[in-house]
Amino acid sequence: TGDIGEWQPDGSMKIIDRKKNIFKLSQGEYVAVENLENIYGVVSAIDSIWVYGNSFESFLVAVVNPNKEALESWAEGNGISGDFEALCENPKAKEYILGELSKTGKEKKLKGFEFIRAVHLDPVPFDMERDLITPTYKRKRPQLLKYYQGAIDNMYKSAK
To answer: Please, which domain of life does this record's source organism belong to (predicted)?
Structure first.
């Protein structure tokens, strides 16, 4: 079927990913990216996340649609001014979101290579107008890659 399963202690099988959404990082670790997006997706400071990696890089990066209220409230509490778009460009805001993702990664006992090392914050949610998601809100990975290629290249450059 193209599904990836995991046997549960009670003998049942839990579907955790799709085969086509698994890739290998440069160190040889396999990453089930949909599973990670589901885990990171529970972070209250974000509305949506797309995790990216490839076999030429040793770590993961992500494009995040931050939660407007959460980001603005964090900024206010930390004396950072600016509108939502400006906050998304702020390096401290990126650190904050990365910290929230890492906290969740630790809580969920993710492996080191499953942690996200850099984020790009996009104030505009992934949408069908830009052909980034399907009508059922599934991420269109090839289109996301094409659309965010510049941001991904920058994340890999700056995080090394």
So the answer is: Eukaryota
